[in-house]
What we know:
Helix 9 packs across helix 10, helix 9 runs parallel beside helix 11 (272-289) and helix 10 packs antiparallel against helix 13. The chain is of the alpha/beta class. Strands 1, 2, 3, 4, 5, 6 and 7 form a seven-stranded mixed beta sheet that branches. It is built from 13 helices and seven strands. The protein has helices at residues 2-11, 54-69, 89-95, 130-137, 147-161, 168-186, 191-196, 208-211, 219-240, 242-261, 272-289, 298-314, 320-334; strands spanning 15-21, 28-37, 40-48, 75-83, 100-102, 105-113, 116-118. The chain has two domains: 2-161, no CATH class; 168-334, Rhomboid-like fold (Up-down Bundle), CATH 1.20.1540. The longest helix has 22 residues, at 219-240.
Amino acid sequence: xxxxxxxxxxxxxxxxxxxxxxxxxxxxxxxxxxxxxxxxxxxxxxxxxxxxxxxxxxxxxxxxxxxxxxxxxxxxxxxxxxxxxxxxxxxxxxxxxxxxxxxxxxxxxxxxxxxxxxxxxxxxxxxxxxxxxxxxxxxxxxxxxxxxxxxxxxxxxxxxxxxxxxxxxxxxxxxxxxxxxxxxxxxxxxxxxxxxxxxxxxxxxxxxxxxxxxxxxxxxxxxxxxxxxxxxxxxxxxxxxxxxxxxxxxxxxxxxxxxxxxxxxxxxxxxxxxxxxxxxxxxxxxxxxxxxxxxxxxxxxxxxxxxxxxxxxxxxxxxxxxxxxxxxxxxxxxxxxxxxxx
Length: 342
């Protein structure tokens, strides 16, 4: 049923675009939802192929989406899903086609039967995790449910995934880092750096592997870390909670500093090891749930991490070992957290 497809799409961060209902029965004839992933916008148009004029309905919606997004820079993939009990020759012929492409608009057609997804012709049979969602919709009992019920259920499940309604710990950390850097500005002899920056492992004073996380070498160093802390810290705090935020940030940061110290020949400072731990945790959340995180999909997160690591390797004086170690520790620590809806 189209209603079951609608439910699975909404539960997996697809945004509704259009839908229509039969005037008398109230049954859902067609539903459309979209999701941005990397350079592509995926629009799923689920159509009840048992009803007459299903082809006209699909083409009307596809035309509307194509016209709406034809001027955008990203590619649009329109996936028609024709829900039916039995595949007629007419439907099979309509769904058997190579991918139709119009500049940046690509149209693909799948058929959903009680036995699963059927793909005809030379068309992709995998797009994101959509095939899995379609086949899962077949097992859902939608009897007695309405569009309003499904919409409310989707909102409720999304709210359940948010563990913390506010992110004040992230803002406190941002404030602390700014305050300490102001103290550094007035510290003309760089006493704070000489007394609290990390040293090569074996020199003792292991407390420095904690205190070095609060120091920065320049305004640019501080601002780049604050921006990353805001982006990833707020997401970790929202979806993992405050306790996990603190564990990932501080334990990941300290372990990254200790690991880096084993390769140091001088001093090291900065919060980037802890921030890369947060990045690892956000990436693991997206991998485990197959969902975007407040607009950040898996592809964007991987790209962001790779750019961060590559940038550290290209710029002199950047402790890339701490970045890599922090990212790995963040991934590992986050695996001990049970995610709702995983």
